[in-house]
Prior knowledge:
The chain is α/β, with parallel strands linked by helices. It has three domains: 2-136, Gyrase A, domain 2; 149-221 and 404-456, tRNA modification GTPase MnmE domain 2 (Four Helix Bundle (Hemerythrin (Met), subunit A)), CATH 1.20.120; 232-394, P-loop containing nucleotide triphosphate hydrolases (Rossmann fold), CATH 3.40.50.300. Helices cover 48% and strands 19% of the residues. The protein has helices at 2-5, 39-46, 102-114, 124-131, 137-148, 152-162, 165-190, 196-199, 201-220, 224-228, 243-251, 295-310, 326-335, 352-365, 381-396, 408-427, 431-435, 438-455, 461-468, and strands spanning 17-20, 27-35, 47-49, 61-70, 73-82, 93-100, 118-119, 222-223, 232-237, 269-275, 278-284, 313-319, 339-345, 369-372, 405-406. The chain has a seven-stranded mixed β-sheet. A six-stranded mixed β-sheet has the order 10-11-9-12-13-14, sandwiched between helices. Helix 7 packs antiparallel against helix 18 (438-455). The longest helix is centred in the middle third of the chain and has 26 residues, at 165-190. Residues 1-7 have low confidence and may be disordered. The site of guanosine-5'-triphosphate has 23 residues, from helix 11.
Amino acid sequence: MVSEAASIGGYVSGETIAALSSRWGKSARSVVRVSGAGALEIVEKVFEPVGQAIQQVQSHTAVGGWLKLGEGVNCPCRLYVFVGPRSYTGEDLVEYHLPGGPAVVQMAMAALGAAEARPAQAGEFTLRAFLAGKLDLAQAEAVAAIISSQTDAQLRAANSLAEGVLSRAVEKIQKTLAELIGELEANIDFVDEDIEFVGSEQARGAIETVKAALDGLLGDAVRWGELEAEPRVVLAGWANVGKSTLLNALSGRSRAIVSGLAGTTRDVLMAPMRVEDTTVLLMDAAGLCDTSLDEVGLAAREAAMAAVHRADLVLYVVDAAAGISKGQWQTLEMLGAAVTVIVVNKIDLVSKNDLKKILQEVRQRRKETVVASSAKTGEGLDELRKQIREHLGRAELSVSGAQVVLTGRGEEGLKQAGEALARAKELLGKKEAIESPELVVMELYEANAALGAITGQISSEEVLENIFSRFCIGK
Length: 475
Ligand SMILES: Nc1nc2c(ncn2[C@@H]2O[C@H](COP(=O)(O)OP(=O)(O)OP(=O)(O)O)[C@@H](O)[C@H]2O)c(=O)[nH]1
Ligand SMILES: [Mg+2]
């Protein structure tokens, strides 16, 4: 497999590669990494150590000195040496820690280029780590996931991937599957006419056990894609309470048409909104009232309900001036636990006393957090943003490091394995399987291959290229 993957999309193993591994631009320090068979030789060409000869530098230690940038220009540099295979890539790897600045980095890359280190491609360091068996494919994906994590939950999930929680779960299933394949193959070899095993309850039971383990994994796992997606916050409520005005005010854009006519919004509208350190997708939809709806009104209501069901947070908006009707209380009841915050809007239209009364009533009847706002004057919107952030924060806590996290590729692999197992089970006992029991075994091999693709035991050039090309350069 190594030789097959060694030339993926222009990646050629054996060549020495270099890249900036820290952020481009001005910073306290820039780190340029060089990896490959020539990494140590290149040091001798471009680096002037202070105090000790470069040959005396031990692996996993640092040495101070000067990087020769060419044309007599030298730049202070601290060198970290990692002799393979005890390095990130498994190859000899040298890190040049330089003063952070674009000109220095550019000149350092040119000097390294002249010493025959070619610029690394996106993800090439991690690809080399994978090819050297330092990490499996699911863990390699975790490297990219950790870098792109924007929330605590994403970081926890990425760590679970990196620690191999998914890989171990998959390998456990593969082990059971391999035992089953072994037993069935032994039976094929020894049985002549009496092909008992294919119809046997035992084989069926064993396949079912493996399938149940797969389904359990699919059912319990956290989806990386869902964590990566921005949290969805939906403004729900009856028509004309000010949902669209709130969407515009909170997102700072004129995204939705606003009017005094009930039933203005029909489609589900979205606008990104910044709350403290994260971005959420704020969504506005048609009113949820159930009075005299025509065909379009029904479709709009259905779309609004679907948005509510997919939301991470539902804000239920009511109109302080118009009051809360019996129907609105019922809708709130119907939405039940989906709602986390009740927004009493249009408070600019009511007296302090009336507002106090309405807030009191809401608090008496409901346990949700209540926020009073005016989408028109902006009053209460900061409090609303704060509540959105706080409630999302709580939802995030649900990912733990021990939980299995599935990337899209992992989910696909598990599903394909499940389908192959289902086909194997269906075949059991059928005439074709009795005549050619290898058919059942072939399906089991297919299931095993689909699982192997998750950890990269089996990988194609296309899969590897797809994964590593999404990395940033320098990783
Ligand atoms: N005074 C005042 N008027 C508001 C406030 N929020 C919304 N409005 C007005 O209330 C009316 C309805 O506002 P929309 O934002 O269109 O209400 P909606 O809930 O989106 O209504 P539908 O799209 O019909 O479901 C408009 O005339 C808005 O200008 C507010 O806080 N104060
Ligand atoms: Mg609207």
